[in-house]
Each structure stands twice: as structure tokens, then as C-alpha cells.
Amino acid sequence: MKNSRENIQERRQALLDCLDRLPDHTASITILSDTLKVSAMTVRRDLKVLEEMGKLTHTYGQATLTDQPEQEGTTHSRSIELIKTKLAEQAASYISDNNSIFINSSSTALGVVDYLQDLALTIITNNLGIQNKQINSRSTVILPGGEIRFPKKSLVGELALKGLEKVYVDIAVMGCSGISVQNGVSTYKIHESQINQLMIQHSTHAVILVADYRKIGNDANFFVSPLKNIDILITDIFADEDEVRAIEAQGIDVIQVDPTL
């Protein structure tokens, strides 16, 4: 017998499927209520959550399905970007003055820097987006060199690996394309997998993974790390609950943030 959580997930997916079938991907609350055979109040609650997830927009008594952004990089979705910002803010709380940190090519991981401006840090990153961030004048930023890969503007390749192979830090803040109990941490970018592996292996105190709900239970093409190498997973309240509990059972400290707070 299904529990209430499964029923809610199925109903919300049915709502999205209903919108997807319509030519303009738009429907009124009345139509959705009649189609799903639930109350208008239930539909409104579901629309609120789905809008917070960046799945649709909800205005003037109707909902419109939105184009889903790519898994990687900065998106055009205000909801997704808000989630990522909250994850970065939470990750920053684990970093202290004079720490040395790795930040990989993830836009979410790079967002941590926005909350570290009062700290003197040594930041080692292959993310060229660091040049657009405000950095404490007492901090040091180190780029490993290497080949620039677009559109993410990440430094990869043998030169980048050599630039990192003798570097050890206190904390690594890492983004990913996917994380699951079955296949661990993974990425869609083959050129970044080795860089990410090295950063994880060379972090002496903690490895913090920041991953919004879209990454939880998702498996990308290229393996990065088994779960045993991850200390903390920071995700959001929209992540699949079964997968989150299974990841926790592997000994990882899972923090779920509420982007609406």
C-alpha cells in the first residue's frame, strides 16, 4: 500500500504531465482540479511547491510549465538559483578563518565565496568564475593552470592535475552532476572527473558536497567518488526522501535547507 508521500509525488507528477500535454503548457486551477479529481486547495498547494522547485510558474489562477534548465551551470530559473544560493550559504558555515579550501567548477560551490568575505582563506580552484567574486584582501586565490573548457570556464587537463597533485587543503566544497547510493558521485564532464577526484582525495578535514534536488538519485556518465569519501551532503527539502535516507545510512551527514525561509 502506498504511503501519503508516494501519493503526493504521483499527484504532482500527474499535474506536470497534464500541463506537458497541453499545446501551450498552461492550465487553470479549475481544469487541473477536475483532471486530477482533487480539490482546488490541493492543486494550489502542489503548485506552490512545484513553483519553488522551478518546475512551473503560478499566476492569476493558472499554471504554466517552464522549460527545465540544464543540470550544469547557472540557470535562468530564479527558483533553482535561489536553492543553489541557500546551499552555498549553508556550506559556508563550515568554513573558518585561515582555512584552506578547494572549490571545483560547480556554480553552486563557487557561490560559497559570497559568504566568506569576512574570512582570510587560501582558495584553490579550477573555476575561472572566481575572478568575478569579491575576495577578502587577506585571502589568497590559487589557480592550477591547465586547459580552459567552455562554457563553464573550468581549468582541466594534465597541467591542472599537476598543479593540484601536491596540494592538500582543509576542506573541499564540491558540486556534482549526480549522487546516488548505487553509483556514488558522478559528473557529465569527463575532463573534470579526475580534477574532482584529486580534490576529494587531498582534503584532510572534510569534503562537503552541494547538490540541489535534481542531482539526488541522478547518475551522470563519469564516476568521481564513492560515497565513503563524502563527509557532508548539503541539499534541499525537495530532494527524494528515500534516496536521502539511503545516503544518510552510508554515514554521510545530510543537511536539507528550505529555500523558502
Topology (elements, then pairings):
Layout: H1 4-21, E1 26-28, H2 29-36, H3 40-52, E2 56-59, E3 62-65, H4 78-92, E4 100-103, H5 107-110, E5 122-125, E6 140-142, E7 147-149, E8 154-156, H6 158-164, E9 169-175, E10 178-180, E11 184-187, H7 190-201, E12 203-210, E13 222-225, E14 232-236, H8 241-248, E15 253-257
Parallel strand pairs: 4-5, 4-9, 5-6, 9-12, 12-14, 14-15
Antiparallel strand pairs: 1-3, 2-3, 7-8, 10-11, 11-13
Number of helices: 8
What can be said about the biggest beta sheet?
Answer: 7 strands, parallel
Strand content: 15-25%
Output the helix-strand order.
HEHHEEHEHEEEEHEEEHEEEHE
Task: Give the overall shape, derived from the CA principal axes.
Answer: elongated
Query: Helical percent range?
Result: 25-40%
Assembly classification: single chain
Q: Tell me the strand order in the biggest sheet.
A: 6-5-4-9-12-14-15
Number of strands: 15
Mean pLDDT: 95
State the secondary-structure class: alpha/beta
Report the radius of gyration as a whole number of Å.
20 Å
Sequence stretches where pLDDT stays below 50 over 5 or more residues = none
N-to-C span: 33 Å
Question: Can you walk me through this structure?
Answer:
This protein is an alpha/beta fold. 33% of the residues lie in helices and 25% in strands. A seven-stranded parallel β-sheet has the order 6-5-4-9-12-14-15, sandwiched between helices. Strand 7 and strand 8 form a beta hairpin. Helix 2 crosses helix 3. The longest helix is centred in the N-terminal third of the chain and has 18 residues. It is elongated, with a radius of gyration of 20 Å. It starts with a helix and ends with a strand. The relative contact order is 0.12.
